[in-house]
Task: structure prediction
Amino acid sequence: MSLDRLETRIREEAESEAKSLLAEAELEAQRITGEFEKSVKQATQGIERRAQQAAETRKRNILTSARSEIRNRELSAMQELIDTVMSNSKTRLAGLPSDRYTKLLRRLILSTGIAGVSIRPGISDVKHFTRDFIQKLSAEGVKLTLDKPADFDHGFILRSGELEIDFSLDSILRCSRDELVVLIKQVLFSA
Result:
């Protein structure tokens, strides 16, 4: 599987998770908006009884402040949602059953099309780079040498000559973060 396909798959899984979380965030935003509109209406009625001109000035100030507060809450909820989706995606990938996770590592290595590589596995992934795993890759045309573990938990760094590719889960998810942010913004802030 190519890196693009992997990124697409990861992105699709993240988008699916994001859509679910967005639905919850939209309900919360509607609730907050409803509460705000109710409080604005009550405040406006009290002010209008005292003086119409003062009420209009107060109403404009309240609405401006409320819009700003709603926008801040939406931005905060969006950031929380993005962080949750990213964290859940990493947890789900790292928590795959060992055989599926090993297949993922194999596909990532094969996707580069590089025959002679040096691998620095993540600390938690050293166990996946067994002699059998390395022999299977060799049978598929990839001469792999194992280096000392990298200073992250999951994924690996692939080196071939001067080329170095970071396949850590954090790096893979970081690469798809911008696209996820755009998607979430479209859902939350589209008219």
Q: What stands out?
A: The longest helix spans residues 3-50.
